[in-house]
């Protein structure tokens, strides 16, 4: 786990902590360009590697129970680093949607942001998006984000490319439709899942930052300093 303090130049986000849950490929080091974007926007950034990923130990992939328990542990750990416990944003990319939704359900978050995010086991088993995922993750019943979101009352912002072949705009819309609070989906035309094929942040840092800021300012004011 790594904690990157805010540079403080954006006063509205200087006390806001974003927990980054990365994707299925590699570890934290692979996502550094994206973490840098979020740091540049002004967030405090907390990022972690799942068991079996990057430098995390043990090297074996977790069971369902371990993966979800680890997510809760990291969410609790964030309270030790966050300058303001009421200003914690949970963010996910791809597979990171599993721990992100678990975190949001476990403890309050001022906002939940889902980028090209995991939908449900039922969906990935019916598509090729399960390829490359550890077998221990392919367990029905505990990873159904569309059902678990019903227990998160806060605002949800989702982003996805129009040609994402893993998690489509339609399936992500189905997920966030279950959120009882405000939810919004931003679909980027001609953008794939990323990172190697070019994803949402790589499509343009300026628009990416503007969309996140607009969402927070209009629908998640609790995440920002007065």
Give a description of the structure.
α3 (about 95-105) links the parallel β4 and β5 (about 110-115). About 45% of the residues are buried. This protein has a seven-stranded mixed beta sheet, with helices on both faces. The longest helix has 18 residues, at about 65-80. It is of the alpha/beta class and about 230 residues long. The protein contains seven helices and seven strands, in the order ββαβαβαβααβαβα.
Oligomer: single chain
Percent range of helical residues:
25-40%
The arrangement of helices and strands along the chain is: EEHEHEHEHHEHEH
- Specify the structural class: alpha/beta
Number of helices: 7
Q: What strand line-up does the widest sheet have? A: 1-3-2-4-5-6-7
Radius of gyration: 16 Å
Tell me the number of strands: 7
Arithmetic mean of pLDDT: 89
Largest sheet: 7 strands, mixed
Taken from the alpha-carbon principal axes, the silhouette is: globular
Describe the structure concisely for a colleague.
The protein is of the alpha/beta class and about 230 residues long.
Question: Which terms would index this structure?
Answer:
226 residues; alpha/beta; seven-stranded mixed beta sheet; 7 helices; globular
